[in-house]
Amino acid sequence: MLIGEVARRSGVSARMLRHYDSLGLVRPTGRSGTGYREYSGEDIRRIFHIESLRSLGLSLREVGRALDDPDFTPSGLVDDLIRQTLDRIAAETELLTRLRRIGAAEPTGWEDVLQIVALLQALGSDSAGKRQRAALSSAAEDRMPVEALVEAVLSETDPNVAGALRWALARSGDDGLALLAHGLRASQAEVRTRAVQAIAAIGNDTADALLHDALTSTDVAVRRHAALALGPRGVADAVPTLIDMVLAEVNDVEAADALSALADDPVTADRIAAGLIAPLGTGTADPSTRRRLTQALAGIPGGTASRALTELAQDDDRGVALTAVYVIRLREAGGDGGR
């Protein structure tokens, strides 16, 4: 079969067949009566083998080795091809993500595109300083795609950079909340914590609704960050978690401040006081815990808290007793001696 007919039947161009010939991949084994090269049935089968291997991503050199090397082991080559393909997919996926983010920023010209690319590159830098500057710049210029900010804030380990990213993200309003809500369900605990911190920094009704749901999270760190944010905003459902934080000595000063903010409502104040006092009645609270509870009761008005402080002023532990006496005097000076 002459080269033209082989090209028509195989779909491989005559030019490519000649290239195969020059490389020694497929050399026609016969000659026509007029001296033209003819391809045998075996030659044509080899052409199809070459095309099959090329479809897997092999180079022509690798194809030749696969067909001619008696020591060739296909399993090793297939493993290499799998790794190369995965690397290529990852690179293409990263490129696609970058392009989508640039598109989402709605650039009006090449200057905008170049600026966004520069910000994205800086945000992925190994330098914490560059990442922080990118976050601050994106907030000032409002050019960073929200998806990129969310991804960055959920993966950032440097506290200064994380703070800048949360600030930049807060300026975007509700745009990143759906992605952050997904972060609350992440398998990694540190990602869930970063997500709830970022949501708390946004501080609007939609964010508060997410934080309210987070109060029932199975992740205690998520519950605590949500409670610290919601307490000062008047959400009484945060009370149990805040009391737990005082008892556990986890951000207990901040938790006590949040409880004090919630205690403006008399009913809530009595509820808080009862919750703080409850461990005292069991006799299991050690002096350190009793001292923290005393300090927390300082910001809770009402008779329930005042009576508890009077009892604590007689505590066996001198430090607890002195703290209670000091708090009582402050309350009396401030006009809350027992109301």
From TrEMBL:
Molecular function as annotated in GO: DNA binding; DNA-binding transcription factor activity
Keywords: DNA-binding
Domain annotation HTH merR-type: ranges: 1-69
Keyword Lipoprotein attributed: no
Pfam family, one: HEAT_2
Name under which the protein is recorded: Transcriptional regulator
